[in-house]
Design goal:
The chain is an alpha/beta fold and 240 residues long. The chain has 8 helices and 5 strands, in the order βαβαβαββααααα. The N and C termini lie far apart (40 Å).
Length: 240
């Protein structure tokens, strides 16, 4: 078993604490242990299971404020039923292998509330946990580039990206409003790639969510585009 404590970020990293119960569904034992540790450090209780049938059993007897499911188990019939259930109101976070996974193979994932891209770091997971608990997410949190942690010399390059980011989102919104979906998908792919390349995985994850909703829910896409636009303020705040 790996030494998971060594994977934690420095003690002076900003952490907000929230309460609640989380069900974590993950087939990889090492990743399950690490994510469980991350969740507990923010103050939430977590139950862990490795497959969909176990998840259903837990949902029948325990109330959960959030469900986190790895993409590796989302094709299990039990998990599909969880995601497709119209009666199910608990927020669902799906952890995908990478930003290029084919969402057309997972049409039922349109009911997921958030996506995270592997490898999931502690800070990104905590941010999503806070987003799923609106009463605890009441401040603008700076959005740091992960590249600056080890490569501070890239600061000027990242500042240039942040500077042109609003124009990229504006072009994307115009293409969507004009129903120019070919151009929209091209621009979205560029944003998905550059976001990750510059260390802003939240941009990539929101772009993945837009891809999932693109053919079935324009309202969700519009809302996610506004969320993408709102990231500019957070990126600028981190660079001050």
């Amino acid at each position: 078993m790996k030494d998971f404590e060594n994977n934690l970020e420095p003690a002076n990293a900003p952490v907000n604490f929230v309460s609640g119960n989380v069900l974590l569904v993950e087939s990889d034992v090492d990743r399950l242990e690490l994510l469980s540790l991350y969740i507990r450090t923010i103050g939430m209780n977590v139950d862990v299971v490795s497959n969909g049938e176990q998840a259903v059993e837990m949902l029948l007897c325990v109330h959960y404020d959030l469900i986190i499911i790895s993409i590796s188990v989302t094709k299990e019939q039990a998990v599909v039923e969880i995601l497709e259930s119209k009666k199910h109101i608990t927020p669902v976070v799906v952890i995908a292998d990478n930003a290029l996974f084919d969402s057309s193979e997972y049409s039922y994932l349109q009911d997921a509330d958030y996506f995270l891209i592997k490898p999931v770091n502690r800070k990104r997971l905590h941010e999503v946990l806070l987003r799923c608990m609106p009463h605890s997410f009441d401040a603008v949190i700076p959005l740091d580039s992960s590249l600056l942690e080890n490569e501070p010399e890239l600061l000027d390059l990242i500042k240039k990206y942040v500077c042109k980011y609003p124009d990229m989102i504006s072009e994307l919104k115009i293409a969507f409003d004009n129903s120019d979906y070919k151009q929209f998908e091209k621009l979205l792919h560029d944003i998905k790639s550059t976001g990750g390349n510059f260390g802003f995985m939240l941009i990539t994850e929101l772009a993945v969510m837009i891809t999932v909703h693109l053919n079935n829910d324009n309202n969700a896409v519009s809302s996610l585009l506004d969320e993408l636009a709102g990231l500019h303020q957070r990126m600028e705040l981190a660079l001050q």
